[in-house]
Amino acid sequence: MKKILEVKNIGKTYSSRLGPFKALEQISFDGHEGEVLGLLGPNGSGKTTIIKSIASLMEFDEGEIFINGKDNVKQRAKILPDLGAVLDGNRNIYWRLTTLENINYFAGIKGLDKNKIKDKIERLLEMLKLKEIRNKEVRLLSRGMKQKVAIACSLIHEPSLILLDEPTLGLDIEISRDMEQWVRNFAKKEQKCILVTSHDMDFIEKVCDRVIIIQKGKIVYEGAVNEIKKKHASIKKIQVTLNDHLNENLVKSLKNICELDYEIIEEKSILSFKLKNIDFLHSIMNFFNSNKIRLLNIQTTETEFEDIFMNIIKR
Predict the structure, then answer these.
(1) Higher-scoring residue by pLDDT: 108, 1
(2) CA 32 to chain centre
(3) Residue range 35-46: average pLDDT?
(4) Is the dihedral of CA 288, 293, 294, 300 positive or negative?
């Protein structure tokens, strides 16, 4: 696959009242055509700094970033046609303009003649399901539709690299599913590289080929989504329904049995355990028996990608 994005050893330090703060330290990764790449991490980990550095909106202190082989600092004007970005939600569009007016406006900024791109605009409207609202002012649209209009504006010049920052933030389930399908299909069909940041782990799991996990300005994990799931499949999630609530002493005793994450779901009689070793289940069953706690139901569920992400971050 052709390499679209190259991030090489970039570093960024901020000044603060407490002294220098290292936001990024020796960050390196690549992105290829036809690939959806997820950039994950807790708040403050450095994701936004990376995205803005790639988009040439922020200066970094060391390292290099290349888009289609062009340096995004030394050849900034030349990389702009290769780059599309939707950052900070849908703030880059004009709410008093219609969907079509917005797309034509951003096409004009990119130097495109609107009379020559009519077919391209129609294809975009069809692809993002925006035809019915083409002549509607953006201020009257739902948040999900505004997000789609922002994406259409970022794609009109056919960039090879698209940056999507929290594309599903605040969207309802139907629009989120549309976004999942569009991101997945668009990258493969159009052979684009899409870099996504999101806290929606279900969305990331469904659309991304690879993920990069950032913690305190460093890459702590990188790999294909299916490989990460296989590697961490030993974490078993078990849900137990009891016939009674547990008092505070029993909860404390249960936590002391073995290493486990413990949470109460909805009602106090439903417990959820994330076990690093399924053998620990035997000790938990013995605990319930010895304390005469009757089980109504027990089930093992597949490890969720969010659990894997949290385990990597905690580790």
Answers:
(1) 108
(2) 17
(3) 94
(4) negative
Place of tokens 């970033």: 65
Residue type, 270: I
Q: What is the 3-state secondary structure (H, E, C) of the chain?
A: CCEEEEEEEEEEEECCCCCCEEEEEEEEEEEECCCEEEEECCCCCCHHHHHHHHCCCCCCCEEEEEECCEECCCCHHHHHHHEEEECCCCCCCCCCCEHHHHHHHHHHHCCCCCCCCHHHHHHHHHHCCCHHHCCCEHHHCCHHHHHHHHHHHHHCCCCCEEEEECCCCCCCHHHHHHHHHHHHHHHHHHCCEEEEECCCHHHHHHHCCEEEEEECCEEEEEEEHHHHHHHCCCCEEEEEEECCCCCHHHHHHHHHHCCEEEEECCCCCEEEEEECCCCHHHHHHHHHHHCCCCEEEEEEECCCHHHHHHHHHHC
For residue 189, give both structure tokens.
């069909």
Q: Cα separation of 94 and 26, whole Å? A: 37
In the chain, the amino acid numbered 300 is: T
Domain boundaries, the chain: 3-94+159-230, 232-314
The average pLDDT across 78-99 equals: 87
Q: Under CATH, to which class is 232-314 assigned?
A: alpha beta
Could you report the per-residue pLDDT of 278-315, keeping only the tens digit for each?
Answer: 677 777 788 888 888 888 787 776 677 887 888 788 77
CATH class of the domain at 3-94+159-230: alpha beta
Q: Tell me how far apart the alpha carbons of residues 197 and 4 are, in angstroms, rounded to a whole number.
A: 18
Among 14-18, 108-112, 161-165, 263-267, name the most confident range: 161-165
Query: pTM for this one?
Result: 0.79
Instruction: Decide if 3-94+159-230 and 232-314 have a common fold.
Output: no
In the sheet that holds 236-242, the strands lie side by side as 260-264, 270-275, 236-242, 295-301
**Token couple for 123:** 């294809």
Torsion of the alpha carbons at 12, 16, 18 and 20, rounded to the nearest 10: 20
